[in-house]
Design a protein that fits this description.
heterodimer; A: about 200 residues; mainly alpha; Rna Polymerase Sigma Factor, Chain: A; Arc Repressor Mutant, subunit A; 10 helices; B: about 140 residues; 7 helices
Chain lengths: ~200, ~140
C-alpha cells in the first residue's frame, strides 16, 4: 500500500509540459498517443484524489478515474482552448462523482444519510485508509455534508484551489462558494465538538 | 477530544492510500482502454485553420438555405380552387362547425344552394331563422 506522500516522491512528468504543447501534440495523429499518455501522467493524481475523497473506495475511484480519462480521450478534439485544461478535467471528474453518488442512491433506493453511512462504514473498515482518531472523525464529518458542499470543501481545503478556479469548474458564483465553504467549516466544527 | 476544536487545529493529512505502483500502472491501463475503444475520431475539418473552422458553421447554414430556396423556386403554387376542391365536403363542414363563427352574411350563401336539399340539422339553424335571414338578404339586394 502506498500513501499519497510516497506517490508524490515518484518521478512524475514535470508540470512544465505545457497544456498547449500537449494539445498541439494531441492534434497530430502521429503524436496523439504520446501526448495523451503525458496528459494522463500529468493529471492522474489530481483527478484520482479529487474523486477518491468523494467516493472513498479505491476501486470506485479507480473506475471513475479511468472513465474520466476515456471521456477526455473521446472529447479532447472538441476541447475549447479558451478554458483551462485542468478546469475542464476537474469538471468532468466532478460530474462523474456526482453521477456516481446519485446513481448509487437511485440503484439501492438509499437516502442521502444511508449513502453517507455506507461511506462512513468504509472509512472504519477499509484496509487502505489509515489515520488517527481526529483525522478519521474529520472524514466522517465531511460525509455528513451534501455532495456539492463536500466538493467545494475538498477543492478549497485539500486541493487549495482559488474560489475563482472552483467557480470555473462548478459554474457557481464566487460569493455562493464562499458561503458554502464557510457553512461547511461551521458544520464540520460542530460535528467535531460532539463526542 | 477538545470541545472547541477548530479545523485549523487539525493537520492537513490524506488518510487514503493506493496500491503499490498504482500511478505507474494507471496510464498503461487507460491507454489500453483507449486503444480498444479505437482512435479518437478526428473530424475532417480538424486540420483546417481555426478562422476557417469558425466560418464553416455559418457557411453551411447559408448553403442549406440556398439549396432549399432553389428547390422550391421552380415549384408553381397550386390553384387555391383546385386545392379546395380536393377537400371533402364533410371535412369542410366539420371544420366550419368546429371553428367557424357563422354570421348573418353567411346565410347569403344559401341563395346559391337553396335548390339543394339540405336539412336544417345540417345547416345547424332552425327553418324559421333561415327563412328570416333569406328574406332579409333579398330585401337588402333589391334595387329601389
Amino acid at each position: 500500500m502506498q500513501s499519497k506522500a510516497a506517490e508524490a516522491a515518484l518521478p512524475l512528468l514535470p508540470d512544465s509540459v505545457e497544456d498547449k504543447e500537449l494539445l498541439e501534440k494531441f492534434a497530430n495523429p502521429e503524436s496523439r498517443n504520446l501526448a495523451f499518455n503525458q496528459l494522463i501522467r500529468k493529471y492522474q493524481q489530481k483527478i484520482y484524489w479529487h474523486i477518491r475523497k468523494m467516493v472513498i473506495d479505491h476501486d470506485d475511484a479507480d473506475d471513475l478515474t479511468q472513465e474520466v480519462f476515456i471521456k477526455v480521450w473521446k472529447n479532447l478534439e472538441n476541447f475549447r482552448q479558451d478554458a483551462q485544461l485542468y478546469t475542464w478535467l476537474y469538471r468532468i471528474a466532478t460530474n462523474e462523482c456526482l453521477t456516481f453518488l446519485s446513481s448509487k442512491r437511485r440503484k439501492f433506493f438509499l437516502p442521502i444519510n444511508d449513502v453517507a453511512a455506507e461511506l462512513t462504514e468504509k472509512i472504519d473498515s477499509s484496509p487502505d485508509i489509515s489515520g488517527d482518531e481526529i483525522q478519521l472523525k474529520l472524514q466522517k464529518a465531511l460525509l455528513r455534508l451534501p455532495d456539492k458542499q463536500r466538493l467545494v470543501f475538498n477543492m478549497k481545503y485539500y486541493d487549495e484551489l482559488k474560489y475563482e478556479e472552483i467557480s470555473a469548474i462548478l459554474g457557481t458564483s464566487v460569493g455562493a462558494l464562499k458561503a458554502s465553504y464557510h457553512l461547511a467549516v461551521k458544520k464540520i466544527e460542530e460535528f467535531l465538538k460532539q463526542d | 477530544m477538545k470541545k472547541d476544536l477548530k479545523l485549523n487545529d487539525i493537520p492537513k493529512h490524506n488518510i487514503y492510500e493506493v496500491p503499490d505502483k498504482y500511478f505507474d500502472r494507471l496510464p498503461t491501463q487507460i491507454m489500453e482502454r483507449t486503444a480498444a475503444a479505437g482512435p479518437s475520431p478526428a473530424p475532417w475539418f480538424a486540420n483546417l485553420q481555426r478562422p476557417l473552422r469558425l466560418a464553416l458553421a455559418p457557411l453551411m447554414v447559408v448553403l442549406v438555405l440556398g439549396v432549399l430556396y432553389l428547390v422550391n423556386f421552380n415549384k408553381e403554387p397550386k390553384q387555391p380552387e383546385l386545392q379546395l376542391s380536393a377537400v371533402a365536403d364533410a371535412e369542410i363542414v366539420d371544420y366550419l362547425s368546429t371553428y367557424a363563427v357563422l354570421e348573418s352574411a353567411d346565410f347569403a350563401e344559401l341563395n346559391s344552394i337553396k335548390q339543394q336539399e339540405m336539412t336544417a340539422e345540417f345547416l345547424n339553424v332552425s327553418p324559421k331563422a333561415a327563412a328570416e335571414e333569406l328574406e332579409y338578404y333579398e330585401l337588402n339586394t333589391l334595387d329601389y
